[in-house]
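call fold(seq) -> C-alpha cells
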Amino acid sequence: MSQVVTARGITYRKDDLMALINAKRISNGVSPLKYNQQLNQAAQQKAEDMSKNNYFSHVSPIDGTKWSNFIESSGYNYVEAGENLANGFDNPNEMVESWMDSPTHRQNIVSKGMKETGFGIALGKLDETPTVFVVQVFGRENN
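ret:
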C-alpha cells in the first residue's frame, strides 16, 4: 500500500509514516491504527487539493471545503474523526515529532477513540516554494 514521494532528497512512504505513528501510539499505551482505504482516499484528495490550490489549512480558502468533507465524500461513516497536516519538514521523523509536540495533533495520534487512518502525500508549491503536503486523517467508523 506504500505510496512513495521523493522531494528535495526526502522520501515519504505511507508505510513508514504508519510505522512512526503506531510506534507513538504503542509507547503511549494505545493500540495501533489500521489502514482504511476510504480514509487513504480522503487524505490523498485533501493533499492534492492543497497542492493544486496553493493552500495549507484544514479549510479550503477556495470554496470553504472542510477536512471532514473529504472524509464524508469517501463514503466513510464516522462517529469520531480528525486531521493532521504537515509540509516543509526535512524528514518524516521530524514531522511526527512536531505533531507530538502539538497538543491537538498529539491528541489525534494517541486518542483511544481513533481506530483507523489514512495518509495523503502530494508534491506542490506553497507560496511559490516547492513542498510536500502530508495529510493524515483518523477515524472511528459508525458501526
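The chain has one domain: 4-141.
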